From TrEMBL:
One of its GO terms (cellular component) is ATP-binding cassette (ABC) transporter complex, substrate-binding subunit-containing. It holds the Pfam family SBP_bac_8. It comes from Thermosediminibacter oceani (strain ATCC BAA-1034 / DSM 16646 / JW/IW-1228P). Gene3D superfamilies: Periplasmic binding protein-like II (3.40.190.10). Residues 1-26 form the signal peptide. This is Extracellular solute-binding protein family 1. PANTHER family: MALTOSE-BINDING PERIPLASMIC PROTEIN, MALTOSE_MALTODEXTRIN-BINDING PERIPLASMIC PROTEIN.
Amino acid sequence: MRWRPFTRFFCLLLAMVLMLSSVGCGTKKDLRRRDEGEQKTWQGVITLWDFPRWEDENGNRYGWIERKIAEFEKSHPGVFIHLRKLKWEYGMLELRAAASTGTNPDIAPVAGDIDFILQGYLEPVDEFFTPEELKRYDERVLKALSHNGRLYGFPWFITTYGLFLNADAFRSRNARIPTDGEWSYQEFVEALQKLTYDKNRDRKHDYFGFNSFLYPGSYQMWGFLTMDGARLFDENGRFVLNSPEGKSALTKIVDLSAKYRVVPEDFGTGDEKQVWSDFIETKKIAVCPAGPWAIKILEEKQRQGKGFEFEIARYPSGSSKAKSIAFASGYAIFKQQDPGKRAMCAEFLKFITSEREQEELMKYGVFPAIKDLQEKASEDRHMKRMKEILDDAEFLPKIRNFTKVDEIITTQVRQAILGRKTPAQALDDAAEEIGKLQEGSMQNSNKIGDSNKEPAIIGPYGVGE
């Protein structure tokens, strides 16, 4: 059969169209696949609520996290971390209120908080860690951030409190610095008496042996409450500080003001900044409790020629060895609807809690959650003393409504210090209030009708019992 010219032309044209169409479809498919691949990386805004930490070189207590945010945003175009700055005084109340109304942030340092976990606010994050990674962490930290075998946070650091001493003041007033950081309550008082005096001779003391601030979320004073062998909570999480040993210890604290007068008038009510300034700046206070973060600040003051030689001591012992209070810190992810955003939150938290970042923590004076790095941090003699205190410390308990429990304890201890109640009355009132609070929590749990009911009291100490 002979092909006519027109027919031949039409067939060639049709073949070219089909070929070009096939190429175009392939190109579109390739572009679509590439777009889908790019969309796998989530972009958007992540909200982070965080508390002030250690001061940087500019005195900014949010400087560290602001730098980490800037670094992460630079390496993750299209991802923005919005930081809301919380205050220690009421930050946890804000977080709880936000969670209950569904206005919570995406990330906050509340990992291991039993209330947030039981109410279903937090994401379990086990999938973001390998078994090999988990083995590197301090078991106490993992236990603190876990519940029912699930991990609810990215481990960051562990810390405690010790008593910081102005060694120059001790020597100038002929007060004895405790050997190896160990001293009795009587030795503690005798030193404070020598360090309390009237410098300007107006018949009023203007230099004092000791001071500390006292408010919820701050546990600097709690170590004193254990000096006669008392525990704050028993094995079932019940408040038991109203024991004879607890009442005796609180009496010793009250005596610092009422009997020995070795503390200023604002003892128990003073502002954190003022108390710290009186210790490190004006040097009107010779002994002040603080965390290991204070080591770096005091050492820097010495280098500037504005500081003083200092030592670290344990809380004084009464009829028993006192124990400091310790706690572990980690960041948690609140429940997420978008898996991509959840994964990006995890990526950010892995970044700020990585081994490299935890090693940087040593510059700020806290103990990393990674065991090997803890030992490295302890090479400094002051950090070694703090590590000894840490290894013997009591850890914060896993108790429902602990924020309110903390408020009750703080309020009642302050009432005793101010002389408005006897130590016995204050602790008995605290026990009664906490008992009612925990009973109410049990009743509320029962009303929910959940077949997997959780008790109001989860257990004793979250870590390191």
